[in-house]
Amino acid sequence: MSTVQLNGGQQLAMKYYTVAIALFVAQILFGLLSGMQYLIPDFLQGVLDFNVTRTVHINAMVIWLLYGFIGSVYWLLEEESQTEIVGLKLGNLAFWLFTVAVAIVVVVFLFIQMGPGDDFTRWFVNEGREYIEAPRWADIGIVVCVLIFFYNVAATFIKGKWSGISGVLTFDLVALAGLYLAGMFYTTNISVDQYWWWWVIHLWVEATWEVLVGCLMAWGLMKTLGVSRKIVTTWLYIEVALMFGSGILGLGHHYFWIGTPEYWLTIGGFFSALEPIPLVAMVVHAVYDSGVKHMKANNNPALAWLIAHAFGNFFGAGVWGFMHTLPQINLYTHGTQWSASHGHLAFFGAYATIVIAMIYIALREVRGQQSFGADLPDGGWKWKWALGLLNLGVVGMTVALLISGYEQSFIERAVGGSTWLGYFTAQIHPWFVQGMWWRMFFGFVTSAGIILLVWDLLTIGKSRKSGVEAAPNTQTAST
Ligand code: HEM
Ligand code: HEM
Ligand SMILES: [Fe+2]
After folding, report:
1. Number of domains forming the structure of the chain
2. In a domain, 135, yes or no
């Protein structure tokens, strides 16, 4: 490691990646606690209630994925722009500010679990908007840090070279950062509040985040397989057009039952039904490139996780999303474990996977540009088992939740007519309860996977002397 010279952006990226993985571990720990509380409702009652464990679980997820994305952009920035990063010192400062803010927010979540909901709470404790619950002071801090990040990216590309990928990326970051502001808009009308809050959540994961990972995928395929820049850029443009074309108005699938006008039923149903199309294109692209290159990669774990991303995105977002996106169906499935089933497979399949792939791409360079192929000293058993267990665990949880969700839709909604009695009848039905146990079982499988993943990230390629040449040519043509 000592002989490796990382550029400034890459060094900063490694810091982001480190915190990302730490928060990933925290996410899983708090997921296990929330899952246990479904089975043993008074588990940790009064110490760490379900609302707290759940909040930490899903906020840690959003933050670690953002850290992973920011890290990935810093990682590729100097290479892609062919110049030195602009404003690195400021970028480093933003990293520390961001990280300290996250740590304070988590500590406050854990220590102030109850109290009134007033202006003080909104500013200093918990803003109360699912997934982005950080209080207002931290929101402002996050906006400042993201502006600095954006400055680093835009200024570096302006100084250096633009490419198709960097153009899409920079444009997308404007939208991604701007949308965060919609989640800071305060109103006492819950319908209006939810209306804007979905702008952040939906337009992040189904528009701007998808485009961002499209850029990372394009870059990752060039790095691992040596695919030509022309091919990945062409695909990227197609994917972006299809994604924005369907995903923006697909927003309507969250406006079916929150008090918004009825025309959203048609708009939301129609456009969100088109959303799987770009995801199919992404799978075709990845499989096509891998086939053309005969899967000859210099970095097998990264390529495997990129492929896991293509399929995970397609199944988790595309198929699992499509299943409940028509209003006629969503009427029965809305807010049941069906949503949680989709949420788990989509966030893991579309986003966790590609961040892990990007970290492996970085690690190959950190550990001296060696091959991460079949010739790894340990045969690569750790990364393979981590890949297998994590994917098996999440798919297992997804199926368990789907079975519980089906049962809820039938018993609570169709038979019980969405009454309280219907709700409780569904909650104690054996199919529901067994689904919750199986989720827990697969939660432990997932946990075993993450232990192996962390172990592998810390050790892969370390026992080999550096200087071993990478298998195929990794140099990428520039436009
Ligand atoms: C990677 C992309 C995606 C991610 C990460 C994702 C994640 C999620 C999550 C976490 C929820 C639950 C939100 C809540 O707490 O209420 C949700 C809801 C939903 N998603 Fe997705 N999703 C993605 C893509 C899609 C796509 C492509 C579709 C449609 C084809 C879709 C359809 C829906 C619908 C209809 C709901 C509302 C469920 C309900 O009524 O309870 N999603 N999504
Ligand atoms: C040990 C593994 C895990 C367990 C036991 C677990 C458990 C849970 C539980 C109990 C909830 C609350 C569900 C509810 O309110 O009904 C939840 C929510 C959620 N988890 Fe996990 N989780 C795990 C791993 C993950 C992973 C790896 C991801 C994605 C990367 C993830 C994403 C989510 C999301 C998006 C939600 C919100 C879903 C919604 O509101 O519909 N979880 N999880
Ligand atoms: Fe959505």
Report:
1. 1
2. yes
